From TrEMBL, chain A:
Presence of the UniProt keyword Hydrolase in the record: no
Source organism of the structure: Arthrobacter mangrovi
Origin organism lineage: Bacteria, Bacillati, Actinomycetota, Actinomycetes, Micrococcales
Record's protein name: ABC transporter permease
Sequence similarity: Belongs to the binding-protein-dependent transport system permease family.
Main location: membrane
Record-linked InterPro entries: BPD_transp_1_N, MetI-like, MetI-like_sf
Residues passing through the membrane, by range: 12-30, 99-120, 132-155, 175-191, 233-255, 275-301
Gene3D superfamilies named in the record: MetI-like
Sequence ranges assigned to domain ABC transmembrane type-1 in this UniProt record: 95-298
Membrane topology: Multi-pass membrane protein
Alphabetically ordered keywords of this record: Cell membrane, Membrane, Transmembrane, Transmembrane helix, Transport
TrEMBL record, chain B:
Membrane topology: Multi-pass membrane protein
Family to which this protein belongs: Belongs to the binding-protein-dependent transport system permease family.
Native source species: Arthrobacter mangrovi
Name under which the protein is recorded: ABC transporter permease
Positions of transmembrane segments: 49-70, 115-138, 150-172, 178-196, 236-261, 286-307
Automatic annotation (TrEMBL), chain C:
Origin: domain of life: Bacteria
Name assigned to this protein: ABC transporter substrate-binding protein
CDD domains: PBP2_NikA_DppA_OppA_like (cd00995)
Record bears the keyword Lipid biosynthesis: no
Classification via PANTHER family: ABC TRANSPORTER SUBSTRATE-BINDING PROTEIN, PERIPLASMIC BINDING COMPONENT OF ABC TRANSPORTER
Domain Solute-binding protein family residue range list: 80-464
Lineage: Bacteria, Bacillati, Actinomycetota, Actinomycetes, Micrococcales
Residues spanning the signal sequence: 1-24
UniProt key word Acyltransferase: no
Organism the protein comes from: Arthrobacter mangrovi
Length: 308, 318, 542
């Protein structure tokens, strides 16, 4: 197992180079001239545009640009964004708040998703199961901007229970409402995955054995059924952590959280290579670590699973 | 609980030819054994859930194929601002959008694009993600690592960045249509399905029945297809059915940004995102396409549930 | 462990910021219950360091405008008022002598001298500094040399310091409205300290305006920019409050919710989803709708075959007359725009709603169909679609769709919007003259002058002339207006130039911009200026 983990860490190296190369290439291929866009609708003096291009290495061929990025990386210099701010500073600002938001959202969807999923699975086809299904459908079909807007208006403005917007220094408690909004869609996945797994395992031989042994129903459900039902749920949650961090564009916009999703989106629209590559690199790191954790959890949940 | 030990029991076993059980246990050898899939199909047909879901899906497909059967109104032809955000009127049962277009007609004509995106993006991710995930999980080792890491890279790419680039490729720019959207969603959606499939396959690959099959001389690919996959399918079906709805909404996001469908193609997603500005003044323009989307997702969730039940021999004997 | 450490650092920064703004005489005002008279207002994250010559967007522009005071400022109606300038004199509209008021200081104590202006302008114009506002100096003699590629020259020959309080400006050619431009922030003076490290200066700018930053680090990126009154300020824009704290939002929707919850005092744009409700949400006396110097149009590129010649002219007129401007402004913007009758804006001095030929901007479906049919006789349109390109991140979709529908309904042709994901992409297509249809264009005046709406957008070869329009008569009229001896004569010439535009219709003007501002229960005396920017210094706390 230890060797397996070490190997997984070593895999990060090629993935890092592959991913940064790919992302840099995509940014390089973005249509439009980002320097031109800095000037709005106005004319650009070509001399000034050339000067700016040189400043951001945009006058270099793609491979040179990528090489310069890597070279700077060695000296822990991630470059500057188009407003002249060091990208490292941007990362230090966007990630902490996004990590807090993502962790809260993940907790929310995991806790409520599993609880609702278990109950729905145990009472398959009954009222609670149906209610949960309808709720899941609403979450899937009504886009997040509507759900977020309604919750913000009701909870934040009308009831005054939470701040309508939270800002960059939002603490854990401020982020509860945004985290709920962010986690809603994933909640639907977790509920349905849990429910299905529970149903699958309800009739498994070991459950009958456990019940026959005279174990109490809650113990059978939690220790035996749940533990064996967790693999798909854990897989989903592990993959979702990264999505919650990088893809929270709408939620972050609604609650004015200047986090990773917003920043990434803006940077893509502006064509800011160094910012995009740096953020995506950190995100890939998160994916790899989350997936590693998931794989380790597999072995813990099901001792039959071994890694060579 | 201490086990009740019985050290000796007197056995009496009747000679086999004397018991009536012989007939019961007899395997009729002239009948072809049903494959797992055939048996599942036989089970499926008898489930009310499956029947309801199929009828609904059939209805939606008919609407998608022949929208003109369901409305006489040309959805894009006569949008008058004078009707903006208007309520139901004769011939316009669901009222009007902010642009004064007929909500009902747009709903009917939007079915085709939305359903195509939802179904084919789901199938595409299932095909690519499912195959790669199953191979990764079953084979393990270096193949697993390579597939999983490629998945990580794709998963971390911002969808918008990737979509802008894909739509920029000459082929896609010239032929912007529903299929370019499907391809974009598949390219960025397969890693999630792959991860779920891989996890499910890993949890099944060491099960006793797989070991049994292998020791009976079943080849590895055959064991994967015949024994592992059917038993690993449940979570994949769940994720795929939810994804179906998510893809339909994602199309709207891409279209809104100008990297999805051309503006004259109608879709539920487009209408849902266009309703954003009318959210407070006329929420019904949001509600109807969202309801259509819900019903579609519901049908596929029910279909998925029925399929899962049919594939699970233990769930069958209630 | 990693995560815990980083959040602690941010926590510390937050605590430090709190302490800072407390010394500055007002908190961030996040709870709205702050007793001191600090006003909170919305802004977006400035896209550049706060250097006047490098700030060309509203997020940073409104802050720079409060931090610096130029030679003149504009009053609410857009009329120029002398600030640092004692006098600006010229006899020929080409050579100007500028005298400064005595005892003007930057907030670091340095005096504001003639060199403060001349050095700042030279810095702004030199190509090597790559300042986004460099084109503002293009009228000054010697601009061509300093702005050329790899130029070694750093000083424009047209700028000469006479003494501490006097400098002269020579323009490349006569321009009667040149002094009017001097109120734009790009012409602000800079203290000597700025030139040592412009980047650091841009993070903590030192100016001579009505406000100053509330200490080092008062600009917390993506969070807020805290300003406090400048005690040494002697100009006409004296602050009536204890400071302005700009809260940074990425969009107006979130800011609107904060406004409703009284967490924000002033919001300068009502988001689209609340246009129909904001008056009832806020109630009487908490909002304002006022036109400002901006307009919206669709430009039809003259380089496309189907828009050339007589048929093209007829078609452009038909398109214009097929757009139901009053209905679209009423329904889509809830009255938040005014149908256009010419190419500038009503708040500009010299505006004339009845220029000859302006009936082409009136909704007239019969005439539109007639003109289109005539054009079809010359050259059939076929089943092409009329497209309007726009950037999807600018909130234009609703009105573009409405305009397209209006054209489609009246002319019976296919018409649709054509969104592009990024602004950069639209601009590249426009500047490289590769448009395939019409283009959304808009103009917001830099300084209150008719010429500013006409020259940069329709002059032959001008930088923002996206439709590649060129008409010798029009160019001559512009030159005539610029060199006119009196403002009245200039106005006449410019409006005659507009008659030519109404005939050729290189762009179809749609409507004038209207600023819709909302404010909280805690503030009073909110108004907006000629350019639509709230007059921050006037706002008081109840």
């Amino acid at each position: 197992m230890a060797w397996y983990i070490v190997r997984r860490f070593l895999q990060m190296i090629p993935v890092f180079f592959g991913a940064t190369f790919l992302v840099y290439f995509l940014v390089f291929s973005l249509p439009g001239d980002p320097i031109q866009a800095l000037f709005g609708d106005r004319a650009v003096n070509p001399a000034v545009a050339d000067q700016l291009r040189a400043q951001y290495n945009l006058d270099q061929p793609f491979l040179v640009q990528y090489f310069l990025y890597l070279k700077n990386l060695v000296t822990v210099n991630l470059g500057n964004d188009f407003s002249g701010r060091p990208v490292a500073e941007v990362l230090a600002q966007v990630f902490p708040v996004t990590i807090r938001l993502a962790i809260l959202a993940l907790l929310f969807e995991a806790v409520f998703g599993i609880i609702f999923g278990v109950i729905a699975g145990l009472r398959k086809g009954r009222f609670f199961d149906g209610t949960i299904l309808v709720a899941s459908l609403i979450v899937i079909a009504i886009p997040i901007f509507v759900l977020g807007f309604v919750m913000q208006y009701v909870v934040g403005v009308k009831l005054g229970w939470a701040k309508p917007t939270v800002g960059a220094e939002a603490g854990w408690s401020d982020l509860i409402l945004p985290a709920i909004v962010l986690g809603l869609v994933s909640l639907a996945y977790v509920i349905r995955l849990t429910r299905t797994s529970i149903i699958e395992n309800l009739n498994a031989d070991y459950v009958r054995t456990a019940t026959a042994k005279g174990l109490s129903r809650p113990r059978v459900v939690v220790v035996h059924i749940l533990r064996n039902s967790m693999i798909p749920v854990i897989t989903f949650l592990g993959a979702d952590l990264g999505a919650l961090m990088g893809g929270a564009i709408v939620t972050e916009g609604i609650f004015n959280v200047p986090g990773v999703g917003q920043r990434l989106y803006q940077s893509v629209l502006r064509g800011e290579g160094p910012t995009i590559v740096s953020i995506v690199s950190v995100l890939i790191l998160v994916y790899i670590l989350a997936n590693l954790l998931v794989d380790v959890l597999y072995a813990w949940l099901d001792p039959r699973i071994r890694y060579a | 609980m201490p086990e009740h030990r019985r050290d000796y029991i007197e056995h009496y076993v009747a000679p086999i030819e004397e018991t009536p059980l012989q007939a019961t246990d007899k395997v009729s050898e002239d009948v072809q054994p049903l494959s797992l899939w055939a048996e599942a199909w036989r089970n499926l047909r008898r489930q009310p859930l499956f029947v309801i879901a199929s009828v609904l899906i059939l209805l939606i497909v008919v609407v998608a194929l022949f929208p003109a059967l369901f409305t006489q109104t040309e959805p894009n032809a006569n949008c008058q601002l004078a009707n903006s955000d208007g309520g139901p009127a004769p011939g316009h049962p669901l009222g009007f959008t902010i642009q004064g277009c007929d909500v009902y007609a747009r709903l009917i004509y939007g079915t085709r694009a939305s359903l195509t995106v939802g179904i084919f993006a789901t199938l595409g991710t299932l095909l690519i993600g499912g195959t790669l995930g199953a191979i990764a999980g079953f084979h393990g080792g270096w193949l697993d690592s390579v597939i999983a890491r490629i998945g990580d890279v794709f998963f971390a790419l911002p969808l918008i960045l990737g979509a802008i680039i894909i739509m920029q490729l000459p082929f896609f720019r010239e032929n912007r249509n529903v299929w370019t959207v499907v391809i974009t969603l598949v390219v960025f959606g397969w890693p999630q399905v792959a991860r779920i499939t891989r996890g499910a396959v890993i949890s099944v690959r060491n099960a006793d029945f797989v070991t049994a099959a292998r020791s009976l001389g079943v080849s590895r690919p055959a064991a994967l297809v015949r024994h592992v996959i059917p038993n690993a399918l449940a979570p994949v079906i769940v994720v795929a059915t939810v994804n179906l709805g998510i893809f339909i909404v994602a199309e709207a996001t891409l279209s809104f940004l100008g990297i999805g469908l051309p503006p004259d193609v109608m879709s539920w997603g487009n209408d849902i995102s266009a309703a954003q500005v009318s959210l407070r003044s006329n929420p019904s323009t949001l509600l109807w396409p969202a309801a259509a989307l819900s019903v579609t997702v519901l049908s596929f969730i029910m279909l998925g549930d029925a399929l899962r039940d049919a594939l699970d021999p233990k769930a069958r004997k209630r | 462990m990693r995560f815990a450490r980083t959040s602690k650092i941010v926590g510390l920064a937050a605590a430090a910021a709190l302490a800072l703004s407390a010394c500055g005489g007002g908190g961030g005002g996040t709870d709205g219950a702050d007793a001191s008279a600090v006003i909170t207002a919305n802004t977006t994250e400035p896209q550049n360091p706060l250097v006047p010559t490098n700030t060309n967007e509203v997020g940073g522009g409104r802050v720079v405008d409060l931090l610096f005071e130029g030679l003149i400022s504009y009053d609410a109606s857009g009329a120029p008022v002398n600030e640092v300038a004692e006098s600006i004199e010229t006899k020929d509209s080409k050579n100007y002598t500028i005298t400064l008021k005595p005892d003007q200081k930057f907030t670091n104590g340095d005096p504001v001298t003639a060199s403060s202006f001349v050095d700042a302008w030279n810095y702004g114009a030199a190509a090597e500094n790559a300042q986004l506002n460099e084109y503002f100096f293009d009228s000054i003699a010697g601009y061509d040399e300093v702005s050329a590629k790899d130029s070694k020259k750093k000083e424009m020959s047209g700028l000469k310091v006479v003494d501490d309080k006097t400098f002269t400006v020579e323009l490349a050619q006569p321009e009667s409205d040149w002094p009017l431009r001097l109120g734009y922030t790009a012409f602000s003076p800079l203290p000597e300290a700025a030139f040592q490290d412009m980047k650091a200066f841009g993070e903590n700018p030192v100016g001579n305006g009505p406000y100053k930053l509330a200490g080092d680090g008062a600009w917390q990126h993506d969070v807020e920019i805290a300003l406090v009154p400048n005690p040494d300020y002697t100009g006409t824009r004296a602050p009536q409050n204890d400071g302005i704290t700009f809260k940074i939002y990425s969009g107006f929707e979130a800011a609107y919710q904060d406004l409703l919850a009284n967490n924000l005092d002033l919001l300068d744009t009502i988001p689209p989803s609340s246009l129909k409700n904001f008056k009832t949400d806020l109630g009487e006396g908490r909002y304002l709708e006022k036109p400002y110097a901006g307009n919206q149009a669709i430009t039809i590129p003259g380089y496309l075959d189907e828009w050339k010649g007589e048929a093209g002219e007829l078609r452009r007129k038909a398109i214009s007359m097929a757009i139901n401007r009053p209905e679209i402004t009423k329904v889509i913007f809830s009255g938040g725009r005014e149908p256009a009758t010419e190419f500038t804006a009503p708040v500009i001095d010299g505006y004339d709603a009845d220029i000859k030929g302006s009936e082409v901007l009136k909704f007239n479906p019969e005439e539109a169909r007639k003109l289109w049919a005539e054009a079809d006789k010359i050259e059939p349109w076929g089943d092409k679609a009329f497209t309007i390109s726009y950037n999807s991140d600018g909130g234009h979709k609703e009105w573009i769709d409405a305009v397209a529908n209006s054209i489609k309904n009246e002319l019976g042709i296919d018409a649709q919007g054509k969104p592009y994901a990024t602004f950069a992409e639209v601009r590249e297509i426009a500047t490289s003259k590769q448009l395939e249809g019409a283009l959304r264009t808009g103009w917001q005046a830099d300084y209150p002058s008719l010429y500013n709406f006409l020259g940069p957008t329709f002059g032959t070869g001008a930088g923002s002339n996206d439709g590649d329009y060129s008409n010798k008569e029009f160019d001559a009229k512009l030159r005539e207006g610029l060199s006119a001896k009196s403002p009245e004569a200039g106005t006449t010439a410019f409006n005659e130039a507009q008659e030519i535009l109404l005939q050729d219709l290189p762009a179809v003007p749609l409507w004038y911009q209207v600023r819709q501002v909302g404010w909280s229960e805690n503030v009073d005396k909110v108004d907006t200026a000629w350019n639509g920017v709230p007059i921050y210094h006037q706002i008081t706390r109840k």
